[in-house]
Amino acid sequence: MEPSDHRLVREAAAGDRDAFAAFYDRHAPAVFGLLLNLLRIRDDAEDVLQEVFLQAWREANRYDACRASPAGWLVMLARSRALDHRRRRPAAASGWKEPVVNQDVAQTLEQGETQARVRAALDLLPAEQKEALSLAYYGGLTHEQVAARQRVPLGTAKTRIRLAMNRLRVLLHHSGKVSAP
Q1: Domain that holds residue 150
Q2: How many CA within 13 A on the CB side of residue 163?
Q3: Partner of 72 for a Cys bridge, out of 59, 68, 97, 114, CB 3.0 to 4.6 A?
Q4: 4 and 88, same structural domain?
Q5: What pTM value is reported for the model?
Q6: Which among 22, 86, 17, 27 is positioned nearest to 52, based on CA atoms?
Q7: pLDDT tens digit string along 119-172?
Q8: According to the model, what pLDDT value does residue 147 have?
């Protein structure tokens, strides 16, 4: 039986390079796919992938299982590093164009049981919250861009994203079962 992601992160936090290598091998392809979708340039995605996993190695001891699954944590790190990378490079110089969101948000997250849990939780969100979350976290859009895309005020877009994240956190926290409250 393979060790869980939580165990691998704990062991990596204790300095176990083999555990971290296993964690990397398990998640690097999905994280790379997300980065490629966000950045659209393979070399940039490869560079940011290294930054993400270097940060994960250095900050494994700060990982909080109450806030996100290990794969969810990596997705958040990847999104943050991708946005930082785009801010450092002017859009014209990087060749970046706004990505088209054409995939289910849950496809970029964990496989197996967690994927099913995330999908079920996302399906319980109101459509406008699910879309706003998708655009922001997996489409790489800023709050302002989400508001423009959804044709709503900035405050409404921010509220939708915050409510969606809070709702997902509650739904996913309940011992592996996703149910409507």
Answers
A1: 103-181
A2: 15
A3: 68
A4: yes
A5: 0.55
A6: 27
A7: 677 778 899 998 888 777 766 778 888 899 899 999 999 999 889 888 888 877
A8: 92
